[in-house]
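STRUCTURE:
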């Protein structure tokens, strides 16, 4: 495989540093857009604390409760499938505006639900927003970022996801005392309002504008985003790449781009089937199983795991534009494989809860340094501008589809195979992920999106070299 071939250098624009106010606008834009990631994290995990109250209030059976919990993932499938088309057609900013509006509205509707049916409809719609945000946020940030800091800025999305997951635990904890599960869901309206207001003022992606032929606005937005004198050069590079791109989805079946599609879908599936959400959704149960003395102690330990997830994402953001995507992915998948093997060994030998706790922390750190943030980053970087949204849809769909499968099979796997074998299975999948990353994933650090596109277009034409 010649995945290591040079990704080209890009124009001078790739080294654009921009003016100080311009840089501030870029960072602010990324921070506001990342609120979509926060809502993604919040809304996927807030349900865990509300579950028990829902069961009592709506008199739910086990099957009904499982349905109420899982329905958001079904919504996410729909959201991620449709978001790509919509964002390519109507714009990145428009997509984020609609997503923010949806999050606000449907979170309130969830809080007002009167029974299983209205609750499930509202949560399905929230899920659709989660799916849309999962795609639109990294895409928008990637397209407006200068190449040099794109890794860190897009990873703000993952940072926000992890913060959202953490905030949901605290919100659940806070409202649990008064059993106000309605507020647990409805409180998502606050970040949604901030995102909505922010997106009214933030600029549309200059790359999308250029693709739609709005040259002047594209140039103006590159300037607003701090490109200064280099705005013209960056726009010229974008226009050059656009001219070479044929119209339509067919481009994805060209030899080089076929590999890009494979890389995106493969990374997405591996991010999920290596077990991250068994830890995120079930860590209190796993820790209890390993011998934690009380549910309270296990929940506290789970909160510590959540904090570790946030902190390691910050470290990853600092490293991703220096050490590169490939290095972090390889380090990450190797670390996850080792940690999961050890978790299995600890269960096998009944080594005790503290050992399992430290190993779970090691697993989360390994995930958070690479596979977590870098998957979302790479799928926002590796596709051509004209069909970036639609191609990202394929990858995001793969994330949500495999998330659904893993979340739906974990408990039965535990029951049938026992914890040791279950974690060893995930460990084997990490080894497969490592090999996949080693063979297929190119280095995109410091390259403009257009230089990355050039790489795929001429994939296989040049002998191997560079790129790592
Ligand atoms: C994954 C989510 C996961 C989260 C945990 C994200 O990158 O897509 O499925 O829950 O990371 O931090």
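SEQUENCE:
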């Amino acid at each position: 495989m010649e995945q290591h071939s040079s990704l080209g250098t890009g124009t001078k624009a790739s080294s654009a540093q921009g003016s100080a106010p311009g840089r501030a606008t870029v960072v602010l834009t990324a921070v506001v857009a990342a609120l979509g990631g926060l809502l993604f994290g919040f809304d996927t995990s807030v349900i865990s604390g509300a579950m028990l109250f829902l069961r009592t209030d709506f008199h739910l059976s086990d099957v009904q409760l499982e349905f109420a919990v899982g329905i958001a993932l079904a919504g996410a499938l729909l959201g991620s499938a449709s978001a790509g088309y919509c964002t390519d057609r109507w714009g990145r900013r428009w997509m984020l505006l609609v997503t923010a509006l949806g999050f606000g509205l449907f979170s309130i509707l969830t809080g007002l639900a009167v029974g299983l049916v209205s609750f499930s409809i509202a949560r399905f719609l929230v899920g659709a927003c989660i799916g849309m945000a999962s795609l639109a946020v990294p895409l928008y940030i990637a397209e407006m970022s200068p190449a040099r800091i794109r890794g860190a800025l897009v990873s703000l999305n993952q940072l926000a996801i992890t913060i959202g997951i953490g905030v949901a635990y605290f919100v659940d904890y806070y409202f649990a005392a008064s059993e106000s599960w309605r507020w647990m869901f409805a409180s998502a309206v606050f970040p949604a309002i901030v995102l909505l207001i922010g997106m009214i003022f933030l600029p549309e992606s200059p790359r999308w504008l250029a693709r739609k032929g709005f040259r002047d606005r594209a140039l103006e937005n590159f300037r607003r985003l701090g490109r200064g004198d280099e705005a013209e050069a960056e726009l010229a590079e974008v226009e050059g790449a656009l001219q070479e791109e044929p119209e339509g989805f067919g481009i994805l079946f060209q030899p080089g781009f076929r590999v890009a599609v494979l890389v995106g879908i493969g990374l997405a599936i591996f991010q999920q089937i290596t077990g991250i959400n068994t830890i995120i959704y079930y860590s209190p149960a796993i820790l209890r199983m390993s011998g934690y003395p009380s549910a309270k102690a296990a929940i506290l330990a789970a909160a510590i795991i959540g904090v570790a997830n946030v902190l390691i994402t910050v470290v990853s953001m600092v490293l991703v534009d220096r050490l590169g995507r490939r290095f972090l992915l390889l380090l990450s998948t190797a670390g996850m494989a080792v940690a999961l093997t050890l978790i299995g060994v600890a269960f096998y030998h009944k080594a005790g809860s503290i050992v399992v706790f430290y190993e779970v922390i090691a697993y989360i750190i390994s995930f958070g340094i690479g596979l977590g943030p870098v998957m979302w980053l790479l799928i926002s970087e590796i596709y051509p501008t004209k069909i970036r949204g639609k191609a990202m849809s394929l990858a995001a769909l793969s994330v949500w589809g495999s998330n659904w499968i893993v979340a739906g099979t974990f408990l039965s796997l535990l029951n049938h195979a026992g914890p040791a074998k279950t974690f060893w299975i995930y460990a084997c999948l990490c080894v497969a992920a490592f090999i996949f990353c080693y063979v297929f994933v190119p280095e995109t650090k410091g390259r403009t999106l257009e230089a990355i596109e050039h790489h795929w277009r001429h994939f296989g034409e040049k002998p191997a070299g560079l790129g790592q």
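REMARK: Residues 1-6, 11-16, 463-468 have pLDDT under 50 and may be disordered.
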